[in-house]
Amino acid sequence: MAGTNTLMTLENFINGKFVPCNSYIDSYDPSTGEVYCRVPNSGKEEIEAAVEAARSAFPGWSARSPQERSKVLHQLADLLEQSLEELAQAESRDQAGLISPWNLPLYLLTWKVAPAIAAGNTVIAKPSELTSVTAWMMCKLLEKAGVPPGVVNIVFGTGPRVGEALVAHPEVPLISFTGSQPTAERIIHLSAPHCKKLSLELGGKNPAIIFEDANLEECIPTTVKSSFANQGEICLCTSRIFVQRSIYKEFLEKFVEATRRWKVGIPSDPLASMGALISKAHLEKVRSYIKKARSEGARILCGEGVDTLSLPAKNQGGYFMLPTVITHIKDESCCMKEEIFGPVTCVVPFDSEEEVIQRANSVKYGLAATVWSCNVGRVHRVAKKLQSGLVWTNCWLIRELNLPFGGMKSSGVGREGGKDSYEFFTEVKTITIKH
Ligand SMILES: NC(=O)C1=CN([C@@H]2O[C@H](COP(=O)(O)OP(=O)(O)OC[C@H]3O[C@@H](n4cnc5c(N)ncnc54)[C@H](O)[C@@H]3O)[C@@H](O)[C@H]2O)C=CC1
Ligand SMILES: N/C(=C\C=C\C(=O)O)C(=O)O
């Protein structure tokens, strides 16, 4: 870090060294709306240097045995664990290549970096310009962990400038990206001339299907969490809740009551379940969906425009909003079709199993779904018919990192995690020897 007034100033990490940049962009603290850090505005020049570093480091790193690489990764994991509190503090401040988004910054970065280098690759990572701090903090641990210079290079900056320079570089053969579908389209376009290998983890419009025999005592708190965890800014969050008509009224009353208890607060508030959204522009985008729903005749049962949010004076400029529940909305509404990526969820009734499967599958996305029922046969039947890369039944976000992770349809291409990451980050070679 270089000191500039009181603002934290990040530097790129290339070939094992922190390198300053010619220009910088401001990064905002979402809980106050104030600039708190400057992030390198890197471009082609920095990508050239990072590619050269990664290329030079590759022969040595890939020649090491898996056991040697594993030792280094375990050392890095231990160091990250020792810095957990510091990293959590930093991430709650800006919360938020391998091209990663802003919503789970360090998790999504390490989720890609670890399997890539474990398999013997060298990497260039570009974290989101909105949440770069914890990636930069991790760079400080790489040398200590024994990661040789050039094996992990981190270049900060915007998507159109440095992201595109990385994606289009002819010597970068493989891209793992998590983010939005329009950006994925651009990455496919830019990488097509080089036939690059791509892994794309994109958005979702995830349904929760709640049958009349569901255990509501478990289903309601879990569905509040699946809708509003991390401000609804997780690609796996629920945003369409289908409830069987016979329990619709009871479910809604209890769900709205539980949503009102989902406390919005500042990062230091230990009772808060939800903080500020990532940016002013994103907050406005999320609010615009609620406005649209209202104009279509939908009802807002709690949250935005209905309840009052009280915040300390210094956080009045922060990007906060209340968790919001929408009902009386048509399946054709953009709120039921598009990824909002905020603390907004729609609740609608259904009558039959066939009908709800068809409606749940009627969007372009196919990432995650939950199914709630005590009938084991039904749970299996429905889970099988859902067009969804991940289905949780009577639970949400139970994660085993070795299981395949990824979506169908517009939710992505490929799977990551365990064996799938290993296959993505390696090439199979067939050698036929005649003797
Ligand atoms: N995992 C997910 O499903 C995520 C979905 N989103 C969705 O995307 C919407 C917009 O969020 P953004 O942060 O703008 O997502 P984004 O897709 O624009 O950004 C994700 C990453 O890609 C980079 N990027 C952007 N344009 C690029 C380009 N042309 N070439 C290479 N890299 C590029 C960004 O700098 C960032 O590191 C959200 O509202 C949400 O709906 C956002 C983040 C994660
Ligand atoms: N990829 C995302 C979340 C992953 C969560 C998990 O692996 O459990 C995302 O929100 O972009």
Characterization of this structure:
Belongs to the aldehyde dehydrogenase family. With 435 residues, this protein is of the alpha/beta class. It folds into 2 domains: 211 residues, Aldehyde Dehydrogenase, Chain A, domain 1 (3-Layer(aba) Sandwich); 187 residues, 3-Layer(aba) Sandwich (Aldehyde Dehydrogenase, Chain A, domain 2). 39% of the residues lie in helices and 20% in strands. The protein is built from 14 helices and 21 strands. The strands form 6 sheets. A 7-stranded mixed β-sheet has the order 14-15-16-13-12-18-19, sandwiched between helices. Strands 1-2-6-5 form a 4-stranded mixed β-sheet, with no helix packed on it. The chain has a 3-stranded parallel β-sheet with strand order 7-8-9, with helices on both faces. α2 packs across α5. The longest helix is centred in the first third of the chain and has 20 residues. The structure holds 1,4-dihydronicotinamide adenine dinucleotide (NAI) and the ligand N/C(=C\C=C\C(=O)O)C(=O)O. 1,4-dihydronicotinamide adenine dinucleotide binds next to α6 and α7.
Spatial shape: globular
How would you classify the helix and strand content by structural class?
alpha/beta
- Beta-strand fraction estimate: 15-25%
- Domain count: 2
Bound molecules: 1,4-dihydronicotinamide adenine dinucleotide, the ligand N/C(=C\C=C\C(=O)O)C(=O)O
Q: Which spans have pLDDT < 50 for at least 5 consecutive residues?
A: none
Say which CATH homologous superfamily of the largest domain is assigned.
Aldehyde Dehydrogenase, Chain A, domain 1
